[in-house]
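Much of what follows relies on a compact textual record of a protein's fold. A record is reproduced here so that you can trace the correspondence yourselves:

. . .
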Amino acid sequence: MSNSVQLTIASVILAGGLIVSAIVLTSGGQSTKKFNVVMQNNRYNPSEIVVSVGDRVIINFENRDPVSHGIAIPQFNATVPNGHVPAGGSARMEFIADRAIDTDAAVCGGPNPTDKTDEHGEEFIVRVR
């Protein structure tokens, strides 16, 4: 094999490695977790999601109730547009889970999963491990 062929092969291998490294560094090694949550009868289905630290989280809410529902995770500065999923409507929340937490994202229920003071008993638990 000639030196020019060896040099070309080495260049291709090096360029490929640089491209793969750039892709991994750009994505931060994170995975995307998507959830579809239905709000009905003042309940969330599913009522709990679990993700890993570093995950990009996308939650699509569908509200089948005649009232709006507040959703927020202040620890990640995450909420839906206008802070509520409108009655009969839908909304999307997106955030990077950059630390471990257990929280109740149902705004009416308070910002922690042990808060059962909500008059409707609403809970939407987000666990980041």
User: Anything to note?
Assistant: The radius of gyration is 22 Å. Residues 32-128 form a domain with the Immunoglobulin-like fold (CATH 2.60.40.420).
